[in-house]
Amino acid sequence: MSGAGRDDAGAGGSLQVRGRAHTLGDHIDTDVLIPARYLVTSDPRELARYVFEDLDPTLRERIRPGDILVAGENFGQGSSREHAPIAIRALGVGAIVARSFARIFYRNAFNIGLPLLESPKARDRVRDGDELLCDLQRGRIVNLTRDETYPATPVPEFMQRLLASGGLVGYVRAVLQRGGPGGGAVESLGAGGAVRPGGGEEVRWLAECIQEIF
Asked: Is 175 helix (H, G, I), strand (E, B) or coil?
């Protein structure tokens, strides 16, 4: 892959994101990512106009498609609403790297197709403008500017399939069109990625999402 953006590789390949880094601190709250006064719409393009408004309004002007946010501890704490990851993705952010993520933000991000990587070392080493290559499958972040590599937690296979489908809605739609998980009709999903019949991991994820909705 060349240039900024995302590469959804097929079976045996690797899901990678490449872009410039924009660094943030610890405990970034969803209310500063997208303030509550702008949550009168769910339109991603409209939300993107106000993302980072109470954190750093100039940040959204500097971000280009495929760029990567690199943050510290507990990114996305606060509200359980999906507006924050929706706004960040609509702005064109290719992935977020952090030491850790708030649990609900983590789920919401993958559910709408926004890749996240947890890395204990990246925030300490990465500087604004560094060119990064994030390998979600293998769990590593290559800093092409500094010729360094940082370990990260690999994204589980099922969640890679969520990303390849554009999020939970796309994943469920594809599974239903192919007969449902475990029905023997699921052969492939998104970007040519192979999909096995659904197992416990998928069931647990979907059950937790349904519990939060209802």
From this structure: helix
d(CA 33, CA 58): 13
In angstroms, rounded to a whole number, what is the distance separating the alpha carbons of residues 82 and 196?
28
Neighbours of 12 (CB within 10 A): 8
Nearest by Cα to 144 from 136, 152, 135, 153: 135
Torsion of CA 53, 102, 162, 176, to 10 degrees: -100
- The per-residue pLDDT for range 167-201, each reduced to its tens digit, is 988 888 887 776 655 544 333 333 333 334 455 66
| Amino acid occupying residue 55 | L
Place of tokens 């500094």: 146
Q: Are 115 and 67 in contact (CB under 8 A)?
A: no
154-162: long-range contacts, CB 8 A cutoff, minimum separation 24: 155/15, 155/115, 155/116, 155/117, 156/201, 158/201, 158/202, 158/205, 159/110, 159/205, 160/15, 160/136, 160/193, 161/189, 161/190, 161/193, 161/195, 162/110, 162/111, 162/113
Half-sphere exposure of 65 (CA within 13 A, CB side): 4
Sequence-distant (6+) residues with CB within 8 A of 60 are 48, 51, 52, 91
Kindly state the tokens that stand for 179: 């007969």
pTM for the full model?
0.81
End-to-end CA distance of the chain: 41
